[in-house]
Amino acid sequence: MKLLKDYILNNGKSINSKVLKVDSFLNHQIDPVLMMKIGEEFKRRFEGEKINKILTIEASGIAIGLAAAYAFNVPLVFAKKKVPSTMDDFYTTQVFSFTKNKDYTICIGKEFLNKEDRILIVDDFLAMGNAVLGLKKLVENAGGKVIGAGIAITKGFQDGENILKENGIRVESLAVVDSLENGEIHFR
Ligand code: G4P
Ligand code: NA
Ligand code: NA
């Protein structure tokens, strides 16, 4: 997606060879026009697929998730990273974050996933794919189906894309960064 790549080139910073900082339009300040265009692009790429729900994880998945949900005209559900005290019946699993080198819990109230669901998972970044695999597990625990994963920025030098494909997930990435060496951003 040319617009997203332009934003990354103009406003992104490679803070080392592994991490891309996009705080000015995606992870801290959010650009609403870009978000809505990302939602439309996912809609275009998954045209013809029956999708009744968008699924992501708080926090930075939510903006992209909302844009996608608006484009598909379906609800957005986001997994929470801690169990709310008001929630008594939920699906939950542990996810290992490669970037942060620690496990975290994700949970979704049982009323928001069910066996009729045909779900598009969206996220801002794809690194090792663990977040998407954790979400897929929760969807399948509920008897639903994952139709695909829509990712804004995939780090092509990490294994997530291949791991998701090996797990039978169709992955649509809007920008694949193949290298962040020497402060330069290179796309596939
Ligand atoms: P994985 O699911 O693909 O295995 O990724 P991983 O756990 O390694 O990613 C952990 C967090 O770091 C995620 O956010 C992810 O969006 C983010 N992340 C991964 N690589 C990059 C990167 O190069 N740049 C930036 N800016 N973020 C990256 P999170 O911990 O879930 O936090 P939140 O911001 O969504 O709350
Ligand atoms: Na993030
Ligand atoms: Na994220």
Structure commentary:
By secondary structure, this protein is of the alpha/beta class. It has helices spanning 2-11, 23-27, 32-45, 61-72, 130-141, 160-166; strands at residues 13-14, 20-21, 53-57, 76-79, 90-97, 102-109, 118-126, 145-155, 171-179, 186-187. The chain has one domain (2-187): 3-Layer(aba) Sandwich (Rossmann fold), CATH 3.40.50. 32% of the residues lie in helices and 32% in strands. It has a 6-stranded mixed beta sheet. A two-stranded antiparallel ribbon has the order 1-2. A two-stranded antiparallel ribbon has the order 5-6. The radius of gyration is 16 Å and the shape is globular. Bound molecules: guanosine-5',3'-tetraphosphate and sodium ion (2 copies). Guanosine-5',3'-tetraphosphate is lined by residues 19-22, 27, 57, 59-61, 97-100, 124-131, 155, 160. Keywords: Cytoplasm, Glycosyltransferase, Purine salvage, Transferase. This is Xanthine phosphoribosyltransferase.
Q: Globular, elongated, flat, extended or rod-shaped: what is the shape?
A: globular
> What is the SS-derived class?
alpha/beta
CATH topology: Rossmann fold
Q: List the uncertain runs.
A: none
The pLDDT mean sits at: 97
Order of neighbouring strands in the sheet with most strands: 4-3-7-8-9-10
Number of domains: 1
The number of distinct helices, counting runs of at least 4 residues, comes to: 6
Total strands:
10
- The run of helices and strands is HEEHHEHEEEEHEHEE
Ligand list = guanosine-5',3'-tetraphosphate, sodium ion
Q: Which range does the strand content fall in? A: 25-35%
CATH class: Alpha Beta
Based on the structure given, which CATH architecture is correct?
3-Layer(aba) Sandwich
Share in helix:
25-40%
Distance between the termini: 12 Å
Q: Main β-sheet: number of strands, strand sense, barrel status? A: 6 strands, mixed
Integer-rounded radius of gyration: 16 Å
Domain Phosphoribosyltransferase: 42-156
Subcellular location: Cytoplasm
Binding site for xanthine: 20, 27, 155
Catalytic activity: XMP + diphosphate = xanthine + 5-phospho-alpha-D-ribose 1-diphosphate
